[in-house]
Amino acid sequence: MINKYISIKSDESDNLFDRAYGEGIYFTMGPLSIHQFNEFANFGINGLRLFQYIRTKQGINPDKTKRHYRAWIHVENKNLYDWFGVHQSTKWELLKEMSEAGIIDYVKRGSGKAPRVRIICPDKKLN
C-alpha cells in the first residue's frame, strides 16, 4: 500500500503500476559508489543514464561470478534507447569521451556488433 488511496494490488483494472512491475527493467545493481556517480555526472544526464545502464546490465547477468562493477557487458543500441533514452550517436560520443577520461574501458567488436564496456573508475576517491 502506497497510501490510503493507492495500493499496488488494490484494483486489477488500474494500470498505474503496470509498467513498473511488468516486463520492464527498473532496477540498478547496487550499492552505488557516490564517487563513480559524480565522475559520470561530469558528462551530463546521458552520462548518468549510461552509468545506470551498465550497472543494470551487470545486475541482470545470470552468471553470479560476473556481477561485479568491473565486469564486461555489451551495450546494445535498442536496450539503451528503450530503457534509458540514450541514442546511438550519443552512446558512441560518451564512450569515446569517458574512455579518454579514464572512467570506462570499451572494446569495439566490429561493424554491427555491440561494444563491450566496463567501469574502470575506482569506487572510492584515491588521493
Description of the molecule:
The protein has 127 residues and is mostly helical. It has one domain: Orthogonal Bundle (Arc Repressor Mutant, subunit A), CATH 1.10.10. It is 39% helix and 8% strand. The protein is globular and about 35 Å long. About 6% of the residues have low confidence.
Number of helices: 5
Number of spatially distinct domains: 1
Q: How much helix, percentage-wise, in residues?
A: 25-40%
Count the strands?
Answer: 3
Strand order of the largest sheet: 1-3-2
CATH class: Mainly Alpha
Shape estimate: globular
Strand pairing plus helix content: what structural class?
mainly alpha
Give the topology string: H per helix, E per strand.
HHHEHHEE
**CATH architectural grouping:** Orthogonal Bundle
Largest beta sheet, briefly?
Answer: 3 strands, antiparallel
* Average pLDDT reading: 77
| Radius of gyration, whole Å | 17 Å
What name does CATH use for the topology? Arc Repressor Mutant, subunit A
Write the layout of secondary structure elements.
Blueprint lengths: L17 H4 L12 H8 L2 H16 L13 E2 L2 H8 L3 H14 L2 E4 L8 E4 L8
Antiparallel strand pairs: 1-3, 2-3
Q: Which terms would index this structure?
A:
127 residues, single chain, three-stranded antiparallel β-sheet, Arc Repressor Mutant, subunit A, mainly alpha
